[in-house]
Amino acid sequence: MTAPSITVSETPLVLYTLRRADDALILGHRLSEWCGHAPMLEEDMALSNMALDLIGQARELYGYAAKVEGRDNDEDKLAYLRDVRQYRNLLLVERPNGDFAHTMVRQLFYAAFADLYWRGMMSSTDATLAAIAAKSEKEFAYHLRHASEWVIRLGDGTDDSHARAQGAIDDLWAYTGEMFSVDDSERGLIDAGIAIDPTRLLPEWLSIVSHVAREATLVLPENEWMQQGGRDGRHSEHLGHLLSELQHMQRSFPGATW
Prior knowledge:
Strand content: under 5%
Radius of gyration: 18 Å
Distance between the termini: 19 Å
Structural class: mainly alpha
Largest sheet: none
Number of strands: 0
Low-confidence stretches: none
Shape: globular
Number of helices: 11
């Protein structure tokens, strides 16, 4: 017998919180896949610690979403017992790790956004989200510095590392626009001062990644077409495979404790 999927009452605040929790959980899982496989022991530990940062953020956000929803869902149910279409994470964070350069470019794109985003969210009128933001911003400041240093080292390194870093930028660029999208559900929270408008972060985000790219002798694409869908539950095939692994224990042994 497998555990059934739960239903969630997605009020605007619950949906908003789940979107950020899903970003953190899925990217945290992706980074955890490097454990034991990173190019050096120090980097193995760094990626594992960043994965733990993200999973810690996810726990706080899932716990708050459960409290706001006010039903019998808790952080574990929200993390492990929803169907793939119920996940609202960015398409960027579910992209496979690929090689080390690919992971670092994905980390640069997301951390540069998340550092700005959570810094802005420290002024949220929602006290719980503001507190989560204050802790998360400190962690993402390190994530951004770490990813930036690696992208510069890879881009300005050997011909092979440069080609791999440039290939990662070209592959992932179309997934960055979704970070700055806003729908009607979030617009009301922005107007109420609970959330910030991510569209206002785009110029500074672009300045940050452009600076890193220049130092790394890499070129950012000029195309403006962007992939969308993750925030609405429309995902790539990669998320289904990831969730089958992530949810295996909870689905196979309902209610198990250890």
